[in-house]
Design a protein that fits this description.
Elements (H helix, E strand, L loop, with lengths): L7 E6 L4 H13 L3 E7 L5 H8 L3 E4 L2 H6 L4 H6 L4 E4 L8 H6 L4 E5 L14 H9 L4 E8 L9 E8 L6 H28 L2
Parallel strand pairs: 1-2, 1-4, 2-3, 4-5
Antiparallel strand pairs: 5-6, 6-7
Helix pairs in contact: 1-7, 6-7
Length: 197
């Protein structure tokens, strides 16, 4: 597949960028898609260093313009972004952005949606809720993004056991393992399917 046929992916992240790093590493090895931009809402976030280390452009976005302005759609179009991947991005996306990238925005959630999703349910908060409910399994959900938190069409789910002696930390390690193993592969699969449409 020549570079001309590669799809450009923008990764939106708010934190250290561990999932972003993993996705970047995966697509460097497969050379099927191109990570062209990191978008971040926190100028101090570790993911900006990840972008710099990998020679990827980054864009720090500002709340007012994101939610009440153009959603940075012109900047994304200028960077020739075809798909958006949310990897620990904590802001809800505005309609203007969702409409511009219909069925081309992919999110990962560290639980089995529709359980343990919605506003405020991210990271350790999700694992705490799973443990409090004495669930016997958890997992990851990869889904398209719509206007409601954690509501878009589910693309992929995989489960892992929850053990009686699990802590938030031990469960998080297991969930991260699933994220690192499956998220890049599912992204690649979604893009290939979209290409075949």
């Amino acid at each position: 597949m020549g570079l001309d046929h590669k799809k450009n992916i923008a990764i939106f992240a708010s934190g250290n960028g561990t999932n972003a790093s993993n996705i970047i590493r995966y697509f460097k090895q497969t050379q099927t898609e191109n990570i062209c931009l990191i978008v971040c809402n926190n100028p101090q976030a570790g993911v900006i260093k990840v972008a710099a280390r990998n020679n990827i452009s980054y864009l720090v976005i500002e709340k007012e313009n994101f939610f009440k302005g153009d959603g940075y759609v012109p900047e994304l179009k200028k960077a020739s972004v075809n798909f958006i991947v949310l990897a620990g991005f904590l802001w809800k996306l505005p309609s203007v952005l969702i409409n511009a990238y219909q069925n081309k925005i992919i999110n990962i959630h560290p639980a089995l949606l529709p359980k343990y999703g919605g506003k405020g349910m991210y990271g350790s908060y999700v694992h705490e809720a799973v443990l409090s409910a004495k669930e016997i399994e958890s997992g990851i959900t990869i889904h398209f993004v719509d206007e409601i938190y954690d509501n878009g069409k589910v693309i992929f789910q995989i489960t892992c056991p929850v053990y009686k002696n699990d802590t938030v930390e031990t469960l998080a390690i297991r969930i991260h393992g699933l994220e690192y193993e499956y998220f890049p592969r599912v992204i690649e699969d979604i893009i290939k399917k979209a290409d075949g449409e």
